[in-house]
């Protein structure tokens, strides 16, 4: 008898294809059903993975063998499908950002609590052994007093997928890539006491930000993002009085090093990609949990509130929000 975890994919675009290829290769996961609003794309995806090509989201969600639902549509439809799945009693792994604002996020988390059905954000970084090791070192005092925390996420990805540049689909840098350094900073240091955000707006979206998160004691975390260039690439620098860590591709790296000022350097190599979150979430769902140990509901909501504040300061309002 197969022990594969059976997923219903809601969405069959660029990221869905990348995820499907990775998780199915493990033979620990299977795509049992798929739904997307374009029938031809849905059928092609279903043929590739031997899945049911559902005519509606409900048909995919309620397919008899489905153990969990993975939502990988543009940000603007996450809330609709997440609420539908939860109300149908199916656990949900929802791509980041789970919604476009904190109000919708609260609605989903409330629904998860009321229905007693598992929900978590697909923030793969915090299912990674590498990122969690950095957190362990920090909590253990290995870095001493934090002197500097800086993130750069410059990825020329405006053409990665049509949604990235579409204001009607909540495109832009903040929700697509800015969420990674914001989440990383939050999970290391918690919610900041103050946020200062200056962004570049173009064509109804934000193409990049310069963000400062201020914490008690005078520590500032600096974040720089851009969809238009590779200046600085994707890097993190965490420098303390006793040790430091510098990472390339911090959201998905397979290697980390703790460089102590006195004493030996400590290293860890571990798999840092998307399969981790699917393995862990499948295990948590089978265990009967309603909330992930790795990405608590409050963390998802707190980061969404931080992004709401960044948007407020930039004056970034999506077309579908006018009049709300």
The CATH topology label of the largest domain is Dihydrodipicolinate Reductase, domain 2
* Largest β-sheet summary: 8 strands, mixed
CATH architecture annotation name of the largest domain: 2-Layer Sandwich
Instruction: State the end-to-end CA separation.
Output: 51 Å
Structural class: alpha/beta
Query: What is the name of the CATH class of the largest domain?
Result: Alpha Beta
Give the count of structural domains. 2
Structure, explained:
With 324 residues, the chain is α/β, with parallel strands linked by helices. Helix content is 34%, strand content 26%. It contains nine helices and 14 strands. Helix 4 packs parallel to helix 5 and helix 5 packs antiparallel against helix 9. The longest helix is centred in the last third of the chain and has 18 residues, at 297-314. The chain is globular and about 60 Å long. 46% of the residues are buried. The model has no long low-confidence stretch (mean pLDDT 96).
């Amino acid at each position: 008898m197969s022990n594969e975890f059976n997923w219903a994919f809601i969405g069959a675009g660029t990221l869905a294809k990348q995820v499907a290829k990775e998780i199915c290769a493990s033979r620990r996961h299977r795509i049992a059903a798929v739904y997307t609003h374009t029938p031809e794309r849905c059928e092609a995806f279903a043929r590739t993975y031997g899945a049911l090509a559902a005519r509606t989201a409900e048909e995919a969600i309620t397919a008899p063998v489905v153990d969990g639902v993975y939502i990988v549509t543009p940000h603007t439809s996450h809330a609709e499908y997440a609420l539908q799945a939860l109300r149908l009693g199916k656990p949900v792994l929802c791509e980041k950002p789970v919604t476009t604002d904190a109000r919708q996020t609260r609605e989903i988390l409330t629904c998860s609590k009321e229905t007693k059905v598992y929900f978590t954000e697909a923030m793969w970084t915090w299912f990674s052994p590498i990122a969690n090791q950095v957190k362990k070192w920090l909590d253990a005092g290995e870095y001493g007093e934090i002197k500097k925390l800086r993130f750069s996420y410059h990825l020329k990805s405006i053409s990665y997928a049509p949604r990235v540049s579409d204001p009607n689909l909540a495109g832009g840098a903040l929700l697509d890539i800015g969420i990674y350094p914001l989440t990383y900073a939050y999970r290391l240091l918690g919610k900041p006491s103050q946020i200062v955000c200056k962004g570049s707006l173009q064509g109804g979206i934000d193409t990049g930000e310069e963000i400062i998160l201020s914490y008690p004691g005078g520590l500032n975390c600096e974040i720089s993002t851009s969809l238009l260039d590779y200046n600085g690439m994707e890097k993190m620098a965490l420098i303390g009085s006793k040790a430091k860590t510098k990472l390339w591709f911090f959201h998905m790296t397979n290697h980390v090093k703790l460089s102590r000022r006195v004493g030996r350097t400590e290293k860890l190599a571990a798999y840092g990609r998307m399969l981790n979150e699917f393995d862990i979430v499948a295990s948590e769902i089978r265990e009967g949990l309603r909330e992930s140990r790795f990405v608590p509901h409050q963390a998802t909501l707190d980061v969404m509130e931080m992004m709401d504040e960044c948007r407020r300061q930039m004056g970034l309002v999506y077309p579908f929000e006018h009049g709300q």
